[in-house]
Write a structure and sequence with these properties.
Layout lengths: L6 H23 L2 H4 L4 H33 L10 H10 L5 H9 L1 H23 L1
């Protein structure tokens, strides 16, 4: 939905919330946030959160600012050919969906609900095949 009005403002607001959350978690956990945790899954999710948020900061805030600075300094094409980097960063932002997996994993009732829904798909498939 690139034409949606207010999309960039909404994305910046959500990115600000993610940055605040990440900074708070790093402030609370210190350097152990990156290398020491209760489970390897939590450690992997910590790194995933860091990479996603840092990539979002680069894509949404730093690259446009760098483009403005380059244009201000007299370079005609801004930052140059950044289409590949921008495309990679935007595809990595899809990894934010994996944060939902963490949420589902952390709330037992929600995990039970999702498992029940997934298991019900097996019965639904048979209903579609037999009708």
């Amino acid at each position: 939905f690139p034409e949606m009005p207010g999309r960039e403002a909404l994305e910046s607001m959500l990115l600000s919330i993610f940055v605040f959350e990440l900074v708070a978690r790093i402030r609370y956990g210190g350097c152990q946030f990156f290398y020491e945790n209760e489970s390897p899954t939590d450690l992997a999710f910590n790194w995933l959160d860091f990479v996603i948020v840092f990539g979002g900061v680069i894509d949404m805030w730093m690259l446009p600012m760098l483009g403005l600075i380059m244009k201000f300094l007299g370079f005609e094409d801004g930052v140059g050919d950044q289409s590949t980097l921008t495309s990679i960063l935007r595809m990595c932002r899809l990894l934010r969906l994996l944060r939902l997996v963490r949420l589902i994993h952390d709330i037992p009732q929600l995990f039970t609900l999702v498992v029940g829904i997934v298991q019900s798909f097996h019965g639904i498939i048979w209903v579609f095949l037999l009708t």
